Amino acid sequence: MKRSFGSGVLILFFLPLLALGYSSYYFISDAFHSLNKVSLYVILLLWILSVLSFFLLLYKLKKLLKNEKRLTAELRIFSSSFDAHEAMAITDPNSTVLRVNEAFVHTTGYTEDEIIGKKISILKSSRYSKTFYTQMWKKIQGVGHWKGEIYNKRKNGEIYLERLSISAIRDEQGTITHYVARFLDISEFKKAENLALSRTNFDFLTGLPDRKSMMTKLQEEYARAKRHNFYSAFLFIDLDNFKKVNDYFGHAVGDALLQEVSSRLSHKIREEDYVARISGDEFCIILTEMGHSRERVGFGLGKICQNIIDNISAPYFINEHRVSIGASIGIKIFPDREGGVNEVITHADAAMYKAKHGGKNRYLFYDGEIERKINESEKLENEIAKAIEDEAFLFYFHPKIDISSNKIAGAELLTRWQHPSKGLLGSEVFMHSIKETKMILIITINTLKKACQFIHAHRKSFSGTFSFNVPARLLSMPDFIELAENTIISYDISPSQIEFEILENEMIEDFHNIVANIQELKALGIKFSIGDFGVGYASIGYLKKLPIDSIKIDKQFVLGMSDSASRELIKLIINISKVFGLLVIVEGIDSEEHLQLISESGADQYQGDYFSRPLCEQDFIASLELEE
Question: Are residues 64 and 164 in the same domain?
Answer without folding.
Answer: no
